[in-house]
Design brief:
Layout lengths: L3 E8 L3 E2 L9 H16 L8 E5 L11 H8 L8 E4 L5 H14 L5 E9 L16 H6 L5 H11 L4 H20 L10 E5 L2 E5 L11 H6 L19 E11 H6 L6 E10 L9 H12 L8 E4 L5 H10 L22 H16 L3 E8 L3 E9 L3
Parallel strand pairs: 3-4, 3-5, 10-11
Antiparallel strand pairs: 1-8, 1-9, 2-8, 5-8, 6-7, 9-12, 11-12
Length: about 375
């Protein structure tokens, strides 16, 4: 099997629902991201053999194979194809996996993995179009809202409201600290928006809240269960955003005179309990570590998507993980969670964090709807 390396990655700022990025169509937002990736890596789009995009709500402006339309909008040559996939919240992490697999097998040499979601313009669940789940499926499994799954996890693992709110507050604090230190500047692509006849450049994430506190978080009402612990404050934010990563075979990178930043060490994807739904990162992590021949102690940093505070907390508890290595620049609770873009966004942030801290190995895991999870291990290559 050939070695898959990462040449570079970019992400847009993450916009709040109905915030600044809501003025940009998602296909155009992804196009800007693809063009920005090519400009940053100094690679000619003509060498790209496929664009694989994650997108969950594939309807409306996100419907007609947004990977292909975005590549065309970005000015890629017409011979560059595109395909759009849906593995729920891990869609663009799965895009990285598919790209890596195509390269490792020798089928392709240069692939872009990316993702996009404009949850302002294409609301979550709008692709269902009022359809209901098959009664054959619901007879087999209890399918509930992810928020209720998060509540059940908190109950089973005895997590208090204060514990969840404290995690959420720390997510905001870490994101604000990173933003103030300019850490995100290396990964964020500025996006020009036009609203009410005025042009504006969006340079920063809109999600982190400077004025939040444990007292304010504690005053929020629960959302999914009256006597529960899950609130809007300890859940991921509804967001808009896009991210893209350029992957190659090491041989192709050398041929083009490019220096890889990372290599893909191992990948995993698992199915898990479709009712609890959000515990998949635990077995996915165990599986990817086994495939890599590494331990969690070998990981310098890990990113576990903050769909709800109970998700990274249960992962941390079950694997006895070091909290100081977890989501060191914040996560979806503070930064936001544009569904189809999150897998690639998290990886771009993990790459940046490893380079900033000098770490070697990074692990990423994301829980997914209907009980699934992806996990990826990347290795920073020496300068």
């Amino acid at each position: 099997m050939r070695e898959t390396v990462i040449i570079g990655g970019v992400r847009t700022p993450i916009g709040r629902r109905n915030g600044k990025l809501s003025h940009v169509r998602p296909d155009e937002l992804l196009a800007k991201t693809l063009a920005g990736l090519m400009e940053k890596t100094k690679v000619d789009p003509k060498v790209v053999e496929d664009v694989i995009a994650g997108c969950v709500s594939q309807v409306g402006e996100q419907a007609p194979d947004i990977a292909r339309t975005a590549a065309l909008i970005a000015g890629f040559p017409i011979h560059v194809p595109g395909v759009t996939i849906d593995r729920q919240c891990g869609s663009s992490q799965q895009a990285v996996h598919f790209a890596s697999q195509a390269i490792a097998s020798g089928d392709m040499d240069v692939v872009i993995a990316c993702g996009v979601e404009s949850m302002s313009r294409v609301p979550m669940f709008s692709n269902m179009q009022d359809a209901t789940y098959s009664p054959v499926l619901t007879e087999k499994y209890e399918l509930i809202n992810q928020g209720l799954s998060a509540e059940r996890i908190a109950e089973i693992w005895e997590m208090s409201r204060e514990e969840l709110d404290t995690f959420a507050l720390e997510s905001h604090q870490k994101a604000l600290k990173a933003r103030e230190a300019g850490i995100f500047k290396k990964e964020i692509l500025s996006i020009k928006v036009r609203a009410e006849g005025i042009n504006e450049w969006v340079n920063d994430d809109e999600g982190p809240r400077e004025n939040t506190s444990i007292e304010k978080l504690g005053q929020l009402k629960t959302v999914f269960q009256k006597d529960g612990v899950i609130t809007a404050g300890n859940s991921s934010q509804i967001s808009d955003g896009a991210a893209a990563i350029l992957l190659m075979s090491r041989e192709k990178a050398e041929e083009l005179g490019l220096k890889p930043r990372f290599r893909i060490v191992a990948r995993s994807v698992v199915g898990s309990d479709p009712t609890l739904m959000l515990t998949g990162p635990i077995p996915a992590t165990k599986k990817v570590l086994e495939k890599a021949g590494l331990t969690l102690d070998d990981m310098n940093l890990y990113e576990v998507n903050e769909a709800f505070a109970s998700v990274p907390l249960v992962w941390q508890k079950e694997l006895n993980a070091d909290p100081a290595k977890l989501n060191i620049h914040g996560g979806a609770i503070s930064l936001g969670h544009p569904l189809g873009a999150s897998g690639a966004r998290v990886m771009v942030t993990l790459m940046n964090a490893l380079e900033q801290t000098g770490g070697r190995y990074g692990l990423q895991a994301i829980c997914e709807g209907f009980g699934m999870a992806n996990a990826t291990i990347i290795e920073r290559l020496d300068e």
